[in-house]
């Protein structure tokens, strides 16, 4: 591919990964069920010790819920990219409902506003999940 444009990337340091995760707010969660994949954009909260994902509750028969039950190792990707600069971080591990307790004020501090898609506010609840950070890998553009 002699005419393809490219930029070089390299691995990020642990401190850079930590900094980007603390500053970020959203990404994409990848789930699986045998040969089927499911991805969903989500907001997250990372405080250095735990990686929490906020998921809406609509009903007990949601596609997202079915994939959560069948996924042994989930992958969350957060990134930013332009033509000349980019970074991405993959967080992989088990996904489990978070057992902690949080009030609405803290929930609003931890997460950006939730985007509704034709749902009535009173019909939407939230569950927090913790993604075990078994593997974390970051890459960024180098000059």
Would you kindly provide a written description of the structure presented here, covering whatever features stand out?
This protein is α+β, with helices and mostly antiparallel strands and 143 residues long. The protein has one domain (9-141): Roll (Pnp Oxidase, Chain A), CATH 2.30.110.10. Helices cover 17% and strands 43% of the residues. It contains three helices and nine strands. The chain has helices at residues 14-23, 63-70, 104-110, and strands spanning 9-11, 26-33, 36-46, 51-57, 74-81, 86-93, 95-97, 125-131, 135-141. It has a nine-stranded antiparallel β-sheet. A hairpin with a 4-residue loop joins β5 and β6 (86-93). The longest helix has 10 residues, at 14-23. The two termini are 21 Å apart. The model has no long low-confidence stretch (mean pLDDT 90).
Quick description:
With 143 residues, this protein is an alpha+beta fold.
The secondary-structure class comes to: alpha+beta
Overall pLDDT confidence: 90
Continuous helix count:
3
Helix content: 10-25%
Tell me what portion of residues adopts beta-strand conformation.
Answer: 35-45%
The main sheet orders its strands as 1-9-6-5-2-3-4-8-7
Q: How many domains is the backbone divided into?
A: 1
The CATH C-level name is Mainly Beta
- Distance between the first and last residues' Cα: 21 Å
Order of helices and strands: EHEEEHEEEHEE
| Total number of strands | 9
Task: Set out the fold topology.
Blueprint: E1 9-11, H1 14-23, E2 26-33, E3 36-46, E4 51-57, H2 63-70, E5 74-81, E6 86-93, E7 95-97, H3 104-110, E8 125-131, E9 135-141
Antiparallel strand pairs: 1-9, 2-3, 2-5, 3-4, 4-8, 5-6, 6-9, 7-8
């Amino acid at each position: 591919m002699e005419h393809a444009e490219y930029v070089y990337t390299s691995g990020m340091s642990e401190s850079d990964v930590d900094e980007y995760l603390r500053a970020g707010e959203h990404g994409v969660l990848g789930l699986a069920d045998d040969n089927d994949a499911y991805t969903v954009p989500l907001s997250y909260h990372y405080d250095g010790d735990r990686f929490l994902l906020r998921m809406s509750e609509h009903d007990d028969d949601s596609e997202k819920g079915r994939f959560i039950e069948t996924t042994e190792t989930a992958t969350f990707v957060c990134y930013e990219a332009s033509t000349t600069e980019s970074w991405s971080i993959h967080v992989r591990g088990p996904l489990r409902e978070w057992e902690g307790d949080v009030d609405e004020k803290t929930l609003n501090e931890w997460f950006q506003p939730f985007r509704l898609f034709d749902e009535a506010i009173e019909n939407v609840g939230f569950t927090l999940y913790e993604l075990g950070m078994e593997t974390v890998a970051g890459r960024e553009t180098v000059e």
